[in-house]
Structure prediction request, 406 residues.
Amino acid sequence: MGRYDFTQNIETVCARAGQGERDGDPLVNAIVQSTTFCREGLSTTPQHAYSRVSNPTVNALERELGLLEDAPPAVAFSTGLAAESVLFQTLLREGDHVICSRAVYGGTTRLLQQVLSGLGIETSFIDTTDTRVVANALRAKTRLLFVETPANPTLDVSDIEALARIARQAEIVFAVDNTFLTPALQKPLELGAHVSIYSTTKLIEGHSIALGGAILSHDDELLERLRFVRKCTGSIQTPFNAWLTLQGFKTLPLRIRAQSRTAEQVAEWLAKHARVVRVRYPSLAKDGQAKVAARQHLDYHGTVIAFELKGGAAAARQVIENVRLFHFVEHVGSVDSLITHPASMTHADVPPEERARVGVTDGLIRLSIGLEHVNDILADLDQAIDYQFSSKARNAREVDACAPTD
Ligand SMILES: *Cc1c(COP(=O)(O)O)cnc(C)c1O
Prediction:
């Protein structure tokens, strides 16, 4: 690329994503919606044959995603869970064993517990923040260590470098779900992971308009096998969603840093609030996790916070029903601030005893901080937290108590 290497800095890689280079190229990458591609004759092998196998717009996204971790082009999928499914189908056979973080996205637990188990694949859900627990969970048939850090929704931080050493010694694949930080704030491959995996639906696309997933690795043979299983199972990203993801991608470093800076301020404000009993955010974590976070995160700790109020589930309900700026949805990582109740939403399919063990209590509230001004976010949380103690709420409860119930 001439005299100066533009691929050094992530802001530049992202801002230039999907742009033309040659004479007459469109400046912004085209959306190629065609399902199939023309051939001249039986002896030609065109670059693209059918869009379930490969597509120029999807390829453009894959190239850019790979650059974020200095890796070959990524393998892009229709959703984050499609990426996980293909990873599992590629690596695992009947009788194999998986070690997975116990605090993990609810859909990952559901896939392993309710689908993969039926195919004879057993998973141990353990505390991956403790490397001794991980070493003790290894079996002769263990093939994969799957870790989410920071984890959804408890924000537990696992030490990627230490886990990579264990996985290397045991000769198993080590995959990190890096959805919450993205390569802008954490680079699992550089820290020794074999695979980094993403729901691009969240921060990478960033505007709540396109589902998607991606897998990155330096292992060319694994990437080839993933592409083959993706072709067999029909789980490739669509051209339009690849294009939307490329547009969001351009501002990823700016968005995630600004939103994370605000999130840290909100987490610190919550930690000092008289009605808050517990805040989960990587820089406020205990047991050495904050030190690991400072070492493996790139300056910021992400946009997601979880917290609990005095009054548990009832207090959580009051806050969720009384916020005005936050949107009550099942989602994280958008430009808007979002609020979620993990126990009844993202983790509803995780059995209650399991939820309790992991720390997903009925009173836990998850926030995803957006691009709004920090003062507006704090003012909204303040009025929603105070609402239950105000006279207006007391009156409303008295009216409720008199109302007929069905
Ligand atoms: C959302 C999410 C997924 C699943 O991604 P989809 O695109 O919704 O299928 C996986 N892991 C994490 C950490 C997530 O937040």
The two ends are 70 Å apart (CA to CA). Residues 252-272 form the longest helix (21 residues).
